[in-house]
Amino acid sequence: MGTIMALIMSGFFTLMNTGFDDGYFLRWFLAWIVAWVIALPLATLIGPVARKWAETLTGN
Description:
By secondary structure, this protein is mainly α. Helix content is 87%, strand content 0%. Helix 1 packs across helix 2 (24-58). It is elongated, with a radius of gyration of 15 Å.
């Protein structure tokens, strides 16, 4: 979950902030590495709590 979220969001924000040119994919990759280092531990730590909240809200 954290990996895919970081990949999509870093790609989107890299495109929005710097545009699409020859260096886009390198900038995206570098941004993804930074985002992944943050997103993976957060998804691991917060994921179970968020799942419990969602179950409580939906009545499951």
